[in-house]
Amino acid sequence: MNTQTQTPKPMSFAILMSGMLEKGALDEFRQEWRNYQRCRKTHLAMEDNAAFPLLDEVGGGAISEAGLAQEHSADLANAERVDNASTPEDAKQAFETWKKFQLDHLAHEEQVMSPLTMKTAATPEGRGRVVHETLVLPALEHGDFEWYLAFVIERLTTYGTANQPPGVAVRVFAWGLQYASTPGEWTRWKKIIHDNTSKQIWEEMVMQFQIDGEGKIKD
Ligand SMILES: [Fe+2]
Question: What is the pLDDT of residues 104-151, one digit of tens each?
Fold first, then answer.
């Protein structure tokens, strides 16, 4: 279990992977890269198959107009160049291209999607149900959700996000998921969260957010 300080580390994934390439540690890089791409596949399945169509509907075609699905295709093409790189030099060049596009894409998505998510339902419970239908179910269908959950929680616990220290990042993700889970799902998933975060973060979430309670979606 880690006990990292609660300091945001911008672009920590990218810095970590760039550092591996700087050292010429290609095998280490490839392992990390494979994990990250595996995680991205679940994320893409959620967005392309359900979140984009829904947000397009509530946003009058804003997602299509912004070309977010096309950006996913470009991102995958960039990722393929990293997959196929045979030397640390090639990998570094392909990785830098992928990274720049990826970060611009994430910023673009946030700018277009964030205001629309509030329009999907009037209450947190209503939005939880929408998230269940448009993110969780497609992710389950994709078939790798529990691995994805463990990986995301472990990384958020270690690094946080660009804007949030680890404790906040894990809590925002876990609390959102609790609202988007049925009681049966949450029984399994809270255990995965517990096993992949720190004792300190888990205890804070239990005390302040009743994260060990029930999934909020009632059948
Ligand atoms: Fe995306």
Answer: 898 898 889 988 988 999 888 898 899 898 889 988 998 999 999 999
Residue ending a domain, choose from 54, 87, 120? 120
The pTM of this model reads 0.82
Domain carrying residue 40: 11-120
For residue 4, being part of any structural domain is answered with no
Residue 10 has pLDDT above 60, yes or no: no
Residues shown for the chain: 219
According to DSSP, residue 143 is labeled: T
Residue 207 Cα to ligand 1 midpoint, Å, equals 33
- The answer to whether the beta carbons of residues 170 and 83 sit under 8 Å apart is no
Compute, in angstroms, the gap from residue 206 CA to the centroid of ligand 1: 31
The predicted pLDDT at position 70 comes to: 96
Please indicate, yes or no, whether residues 107 and 166 belong to a single structural domain of this protein.
no
| Domain contains 3 | no
Are 157 and 80 contained in the same domain?
A: no
Strand ranges in 50-151 using DSSP code E only, listed in sequence order = none
CA of 108 to the centre of ligand 1 (A): 9
Token pair 């295709």 is found at: 73
114: Cβ contacts below 8 Å, ≥ 6 apart: none
Domains contained in the chain, number: 2
